[in-house]
Amino acid sequence: MFSTLLIHGCGHHSGEPTSFSFNVAPSFPGSSWEQQTTLPAPETWASKDISEAEGCLELSLQNRISEGRIGVTFSALVVSATKGGKDVRPSLPESVCLKFAKQEFCRSLAREAWFYEQLADSCQGTSVPRCYGFFSSTMGEQPGYPDVTFIPWEKRIYRLEDTDDVLSWDNPSPDWLPDDQPGAQKYISDLSGYKSGSPWYTWQRSEHNPTLAVLVLDLLGKTCTGVRAGKVK
Predict the structure, then answer these.
(1) Nearest Cα residue to 60 out of 81, 80, 76
(2) Cβ atoms of residues 93 and 217 within 8 Å
(3) What is the pTM of this model?
(4) What is the DSSP string of the chain?
(5) pLDDT value at 18 more than 50
(6) Strand pairing partners for 18?
(7) In DSSP terms, which residues pair with 133 in a beta bridge?
(8) How far apart are CA 75 and CA 220, in angstroms?
(9) What local confidence, expressed as pLDDT, does residue 229 receive?
(10) What is the pLDDT of residue 188?
């Protein structure tokens, strides 16, 4: 697990390309499903320990792939990768996929990062992409702020008002998840406190100093365009 992520060409400062830096961040565990007996979730339910993360992954932003409800994806070239003073670049692919959270949905992306952690031993690299880390920062930590722009947030197609209604219930964060809904509480529990003890539990978007969050994943096949291919003969 890398402790630092540096992405070149991720924004502009005074009209010139600039790099953005991120630090490894904890994921956001979900509540556990309880059908009959309510028990604390096992220790493996907790977010991955990031205290021993080390090294730096250096990338160069390339092409925009697609946009969804909570994020935007880009391809990126791996420039360098070091751990413990050693070059680990040969252990990584030439390119990776970056999934950037939109301003309102960093909490949701942190939950997605937790799912990748839960699937790390059995499914990553087979049925789901490998995940090389979840990282976060703020706009205020970037050189040149506030005179800096963040490319993944430009040319946005889907706005918050296009996908999310105003919440009809009290919630720790406007970036709600399925296990936040009042109707779900009779089926789930958080006795271990992994969810409520997370820094993402009450996360709020800041208008003046927005949070930046990104997942680094395997870059897989061709982009899904929605256009059906011809019949396979």
Answers:
(1) 76
(2) no
(3) 0.90
(4) --SEEEEEEEEEETTEEEEEEEEE----PPPEE-SS---PPPGGGSPPP-TT---EEEEEEEEEEEE-SSEEEEEEEEEEEEETTEE-GGGS-SEEEEEEEPTT-HHHHHHHHHHHHHTTTTTBTTTB--EEEEEEEEGGGSTTTTSEEEGGGSS--S-HHHH-PPPSS--S-SS--GGGSGGGTTTEE-TT-TTTTSTTTT----SSS-EEEEEEEE--SSPP-SPPPPPP-
(5) yes
(6) 11
(7) 216
(8) 10
(9) 53
(10) 85
> For residues 97, 47, 127 and 136, what is the CA-based torsion angle, rounded to 10 degrees?
-10
Compute the chain's Rg from CA coordinates: 19
Show the tokens assigned to 118.
């839960």
For residues 68 and 13, the answer to whether their CB atoms sit within 8 Å is no
Q: What is the pLDDT of residues 178-230, one digit of tens each?
A: 888 877 777 888 889 999 999 999 999 998 999 999 999 999 877 666 655 55
What tokens were used for 89? Answer: 């670049």
Tokens standing for residue 205: 């978007």
Give the C-alpha distances (Å, rounded to integers) separating 42 from 39, 189, 224.
Answer: 9, 12, 37
